[in-house]
Amino acid sequence: NFPGPAPDSYLYGNVKYVPKGGFPAWLLARQREYGEVFQVWLLQTRVIVLSNADDVRFVTAEMNFPKSDGFVSGLSPFLGDGLLLIDNNRHKAQRRAIAARFNQDFMKDLHLHIEATMASFVQILDRAADEGSVLDFDAEITKFTLNVICRSAFGSNTDFLNREDELPSLVDAALRHSAKYLVHARYTWWLGKLAAPALFETAHKVHEFVLDMIRARRSESELARDERPVDLLDIFLSVPGMDNNYVASEVSTFLFAGHDTTSHTLAWLMYEVVQRQDIMHQIQKEVCETVVLKEGENGFPWPSFDQVRQLDYLNMVWKETLRKRPVTATGTYRVITDDVELPGTKTKLRKGTEVLIPPYLIHQNERYWYKPEAFDPLRWTRENSLGRHPYALQAFSSGPRNCIGQIFATHEALVVLAVLFARYDFKLACPPEDIMEFHSLTMRPRLRRQSKLQQHKGAQTYLPVRVFRKSSKA
Ligand code: HEM
């Protein structure tokens, strides 16, 4: 007997009338109506939605209940047995082996990959500034982060920003097909490849691409290996007992989890900041006066690895974006494996119940956040953070299955933002209310009214901005 909306249809449950891309906002409206625990019907499955931080701690950290079959079967054609989907029994050893190598030295190499990719990105922004053209910030920054994760994975000199490479378009297509498949996989997984031929085909191509890279790497000489920086492929290949197929699944998982999450958060940050000149100036002040970026070899201001840690205000703006616009808005699906009582809301759940933990709802819960709808980086000062519930921020989830890439993402984001705000001013090229939250696998900004021509071409505009070179150099 959980509160919640009655299903609208036997087949579709509650999802029939959810506006396209609007699932997080729809859930939030239901939370306001029914409280911190309520039920929804996703097609014919009843899912209990949680947004109390003590309940979330219990499910994700204390009990670490497994991911639900519906979630796993929806993404497994692309991600296989990578960290995101692998069952809890095998997860522990796999995660420990990877986390041990995901260390400070690796982060320093990441810094180099970002610098190399930044050189191309700066060219694109310079061109937009000089021509006075409108740039789709979300689309461009997504290519950027995909390039960074590909370089971090393969260490190669791939430059996807200035070339039409096959891999990024394949990863992008696999993401789009996975988003569709996730919705109906609960009922069609048994059809195998017939259920989603396009997804299986693109996932297979990515897999083959990665297998080729693995074979080349396995035949690399020791000398060549010693002379180049470590990359993700080295890390995965060094995990004991893992064959090529496992390594390929892990690479796909990192390509999948490690780029559009970061890029859409960066796009949301840009969207918030361009509307708040006070915040933009404060960031520019910190970047240009406090940290004083040096002109790098590539001809743009570049922070050293250690300087990134001094960007305290920028870090607060980043955290506030993760709170207000959590890109993994609907969060993690878990299945309860024992009869339990949740500690926060005293809700009793039966073994076999599926639960959903949406960060979007927890981050708007007034129990934890004062004026949650406001974009206020200062809520992240040390004093203002005192006494906050440690599980109230769920952008990276929590417990043993939380995001392994959060330090990676934060470092990448702060570096990119430091360079962008040191070199450019930005303005939104449309009224702010024309931008909406659009959720498929992740939640990104999207222009509400797409032009007919673009729709015809199957293209979208996400976040149109104008770029201006700053008059004084950093
Ligand atoms: C702003 C950026 C990011 C956000 C908001 C984010 C968010 C998340 C969340 C919420 C989860 C848990 C998913 C679940 O429970 O089903 C997760 C898991 C994961 N993330 Fe991220 N992520 C980000 C960046 C990254 C990056 C850059 C990488 C890779 C370099 C990465 C790799 C992973 C992996 C491998 C997992 C599975 C971890 C496990 O189960 O052990 N993520 N991420």
UniProtKB/TrEMBL annotation:
Names of the cofactor(s): heme
Keywords in alphabetical order: Heme, Iron, Metal-binding, Monooxygenase, Oxidoreductase, Signal
Positions contributing to heme binding: C403
Residue ranges that the Swiss-Prot or TrEMBL entry lists as coiled coil: none
UniProt GO MF annotations: heme binding; iron ion binding; monooxygenase activity; oxidoreductase activity, acting on paired donors, with incorporation or reduction of molecular oxygen
A Pfam family that the UniProt record links to this protein: p450
InterPro entries associated with the record: Cyt_P450, Cyt_P450_CS, Cyt_P450_E_grp-I, Cyt_P450_sf, Cytochrome_P450_Monoox
Superkingdom of the source species: Eukaryota
Family: Belongs to the cytochrome P450 family.
Stated name of the protein: Cytochrome P450 4B1
Organism name: Porphyridium purpureum (Red alga)
